[in-house]
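Last lecture ended with a question: if I hand you only a sequence, what can you say about the shape of the protein? Today we answer it with a concrete record. The protein is histidine kinase. Below, first the input exactly as provided, then the predicted structure, then a couple of comments.
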Amino acid sequence: MTPLLGRRARLRWLHLIIGGALLMPYFLVGTVIVGSYSADANVFSSPVNQLTAFGFALPMAAVTALFPLARPLSVAAARALCGLPPDRPLADGPARTRQARARAALWYTLHVALGGIISGMTLALTPFAVGVSVLPFLSTVRDSPALDVPQALDRPWLLALAPLAGIAMLAAMAGCAAAAGALLANRAPVLLGPTPDDRLAAAERRAAALAVRNQLARELHDSVGHALSAVTLQAGAARRVLDSDPEFVREALTAIEETTRRTVGELDSVLGLLRQGAEDAAGPAGPGLDALDGLLARCGVPVSYTAEGDQGAVAEAVAREAYRIVQEGLSNALRHGGHGAPVRLRITVRTEELEIVMDSPLPDRPPPLRPGGGHGLPGIAERAALLGGRTGAGPHDGGWRLTACLPLRTPGRGRP
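The predicted structure:
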């Protein structure tokens, strides 16, 4: 009896009853249309007129289901009552495309059509089957004008079979409801599932969210990585001259304090964007070229800085990326260029692009490899590529040169 009267079968039956209730307004309008040309005074007395009204109701239901909000309502009801397997996902959100609307309309029409049939059977057949079942036991029911059974009184064996006939009617009705519910559950993933356009939109949202996460990861890597490199270098130098040069130690501690304070502020900004979520994170706001002087003054290595061109003409997004590229370049110089090795930095603003050139010496021996490798140079290349720029890095004149060219104007493009 579980397939006919189990919990899932009962929920699907309830779902069909809801469909029958949703059909009623359309059916009543259909009866008005039929009554306007029918010769019968009472439309409900004629099965033909009722079927005709039912036929008028279904197209009207399909039209109303073309509205975008019809799909999320249908999906909510199907998820709660149809007993769908968890591996058959349904689409979330309103139907935006023509294909999605057509599928939602077909589902809604199928739901109200089957719901109307099962609801009619439930309302009409249930009392009749109960009445037939109690015929042998209640004379008042046998004498009822609603049941034409006088001929059965002459055949007691027929009357004795009446309870079985009533139970068979109820079982048949339950079987029809179970079959209709199973049909709806089988069609739900097809008609209410994501269309190819829905899947494409979901993939685009995931790609956008991943791009934001990658961007935030770059911000954390560049900001925190540079700060840790600078603090490590300053602390190590201060430890070596702790007794012989107190003034240098004082300057190193001051640099460590300022570096950590600035990094904590940048870290709070990035973490705030992570709390907002990918949809709200339009891009982390960070320092620009106007903050370079403070970065170079406390970066842990001597830097010869040359600026050419009007930096005020550089867009905010380009200035932020240029700052991060310089910061990551200084971090690499700190980690790999040797303690106190001088760095030459030149930033040139031309008519169409901003050029960054950073030269640093190579160490006497290769630095130890970090587990998993570094992410600095790939991150720099990603930053430049997002703006339509390019980068390069490699040995140059006995040292190491990092270059980056960023366009000052990026029409039709933006940061993720």
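Comments.
1. Residues 196-240 form the longest helix (45 residues).
2. The chain has 13 helices and five strands.
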